[in-house]
Design brief:
single chain, Rossmann fold, 6-stranded parallel sheet, binds guanine, 291 residues, 2 domains, alpha/beta
């Protein structure tokens, strides 16, 4: 039976560490870190995510602001909000919750955020810095996965990692970070058009699932003893039993894996914890005191 990686416990540890760092920054006369979240429209999942992020900020001693726009907002309306937050010295981090309504080009918005305040690390400058091994910020979800592996004692050096899913937010940066010097994994970036995906997944010592298809990855896709990290958060219909499911068939996979993350309670809480980490770092960088 696999060791279950407790993302809630590890995220709570990270949040405590950030809270201690924030307290130290304030005690030294530094600024109170401030995150501005921007929410466009009424997407129910986005509303929950933003509320969770704000609550976590407050608990860590980080100020949070919420800017709300109606789903009829234009790209120019949203750009005006971003420009105002860029120019506000009290705001250290800016997060525009995705997805945006279809009429707004996400790439234009992400490029407009001041890279120094881009705590999601989605701006092309921050993506470039990360790929070149000199990150300003690491993207929150892949960073959360790295912390889960490190704090659970899962080795990466010399191991075969397979990342399933090639999104800009998770799959692509995840693959880059695992291959980076110091982590030293050999990485395969697989996706929906990869031939014989089960066979490819079976080569993985570390399998990262980020596809968004409930319980797609079964027991026979997993090498015995592998670390299985499930980034998927899929809402099930009432016909499917309701609730949330990951991309991995957890019960079956846990019989063969060496380590496994549950959904919920695995990667999800880490994403929020790493956002707090980045917001603290943004305030440190603004104050010229980054460690
Ligand atoms: N939507 C889904 N994940 C994320 C994330 O990490 N950041 C933002 N801004 N939006 C998201």
């Amino acid at each position: 039976m696999a060791e279950i990686i407790d993302g809630k416990r590890i995220a709570s540890q990270v949040r405590d560490e950030v809270a201690a760092g924030v307290a130290k920054l304030k005690a030294a006369g530094g600024p109170t870190p401030c995150l501005a979240a921007v929410l466009v429209g009424e997407n129910p999942a986005s509303q929950v995510y933003v509320r969770n992020k704000q609550r976590a900020c407050e608990r860590a001693g980080i100020d949070s602001r919420l800017e709300r726009l109606p789903d009829t907002a234009s790209e120019a309306d949203l750009l005006a909000v971003v420009e105002r937050l860029n120019a506000d010295p009290a705001v250290h981090g800016i997060l525009v919750q995705l997805p945006l309504p279809g009429a707004i080009a996400e790439a234009n918005i992400l490029r407009a955020i001041d890279p120094a305040k881009d705590v999601d690390a989605f701006h092309p400058e921050n993506v470039g810095l990360m790929i070149q091994g000199q990150p300003r910020y690491l993207p929150c979800t892949p960073h959360g996965v790295l912390e889960l592996l490190r704090r659970s004692g899962v080795p990466t050096a010399g191991k075969q990692a397979v990342v399933v899913g090639r999104s800009d937010i998770v799959g692509k940066p995840m693959a880059m970070l695992l291959a980076q010097r110091g982590r030293d994994a050999t990485v395969t970036l697989a996706h929906s058009l990869t031939p014989d995906l089960p066979r490819v997944c079976r080569t993985a010592d570390i399998l990262i699932a980020a596809v968004g298809r409930p319980r797609m990855i079964g027991k026979d896709w997993i090498k015995p003893g592998a670390a299985v990290i499930d980034v998927g958060i899929n809402r099930l219909s009432d016909d499917e039993g309701g609730g949330l499911a990951g991309d991995v068939d957890f019960e079956a996979a846990a019989e063969v894996a060496g380590w496994i993350t549950p959904v919920p309670g695995g990667v999800g809480p880490m994403t929020v914890a790493m956002l707090l980490h980045n917001t603290h770092r943004a305030a440190q960088l603004a104050a010229g005191v980054a460690d």
